[in-house]
Amino acid sequence: TYPHPDRFWDIVEKYQVNIFYTAPTALRAIMREGDEWPDKHDLSSLRILGSVGEPINPEAWMWYYNVIGKGKCPIVDTWWQTETGGILITPLPGAIPTKPGSATLPFPGVEPAVLRQDGSVADVNEGGYLVIKKPWPGLMRRVYGEPKRFKETYFVQFPGMYTTGDGARIDDDGYYWLMGRIDDVINVSGHRIGTAEVESALVSHESVAEAAVVGMPHEIKGQGIYAFVTLKADVEKSDALKKELVTHVRKEIGPIATPDKLQFADGLPKTRSGKIMRRIL
Questions:
Q1: Number of other residues whose CB lies within 10 A of the CB of residue 246
Q2: Average pLDDT, the chain
Q3: Per-residue pLDDT band at 246 (split at 50, 70, 90)
Q4: Residue 137: half-sphere exposure toward Cβ, Cα within 13 Å
Q5: Residues 133, 155: contact at Cβ < 8 Å?
Q6: What angle, 0 to 180 degrees and rounded to 10, lies between the N-to-C axes of helices 239-252 and 195-203?
């Protein structure tokens, strides 16, 4: 977005771009600057909007759909990995009804499942391990020079299936909802809390642009929840707002997900592809 927050939209208008594909983190950063930046441009050339890299929260999805797509562009929320060689779970534009925040259904020929740690199939709306039951042409063949590591990382935990390392749940309609990396889970008093779930609750507040959640040592709970929050451009930091955000998470998810500490941050560290680097927070 350098040198101006509307750089993307300037390019879309200038070159009549018809497909725009980006990460939710980038969208939230753009949202933070306000609607006036995209509203200055003619974005009518766009026909498909894409999301990739991490779960997209419903609030960012709706902003993307209404402000950028003007309510006419389908959003293709894709799930895939470098290791898979292509998209595995995605809505087909115009063919599969979408739900804000869901990657919807597997691509034809792909057979995913959501399992518990013991290998049993998770119930509807129960979070678990996302696996792929059958091979497909694009799947990586090995890790160069490390065949043992390749097998142990992807095929030992659930024998005969590809272990993605991502968490997911399946809703009543069979739609897949990605929950982030399995290792991005905080064990609070024996309850497993996904960081993506808490982050989504935080960014659903009207004052928040971005959020990152990590675990912290807690002498009673074992692990506590530490939240880093980036506010929208026109919002003032205050202790009252901190309390309001903590209460908001408690209301959205429940007492067990209440952040133990909340810190305002002017920006969050990201990879080149736009993913938040939680490991350095």
A1: 18
A2: 92
A3: very high
A4: 2
A5: no
A6: 120
Tokens of 245: 């955000």
- The full 3-state SS of the chain, as one line of letters, equals CCCCCCHHHHHHHHHCCCEEEECHHHHHHHHHCCCHHHHCCCCCCCCEEEECCCCCCHHHHHHHHHHHCCCCCCEEECEEEHHHCEEEECCCCCCCCCCCCCCECECCCCCEEEECCCCCECCCCCCEEEEECCCCCCCCCCCCCCHHHHHHHHCCCCCCCEEEEEEEEECCCCCEEEEEECCCEEEECCEEEEHHHHHHHHHCCCCEEEEEEEEEEECCCEEEEEEEEEECCCCCCCHHHHHHHHHHHHHHCCHHHCCCEEEECCCCCECCCCCECHHHC
Query: 20 falls in which pLDDT band (50, 70, 90)?
Result: very high
pLDDT for res 37:
95
**Does the pLDDT value for residue 85 go beyond 90?**
yes
Full-model pTM: 0.78
Going along the chain from its start, the domains and CATH numbers come out as 1-78 (3.40.50.980), 189-280 (3.30.300.30)
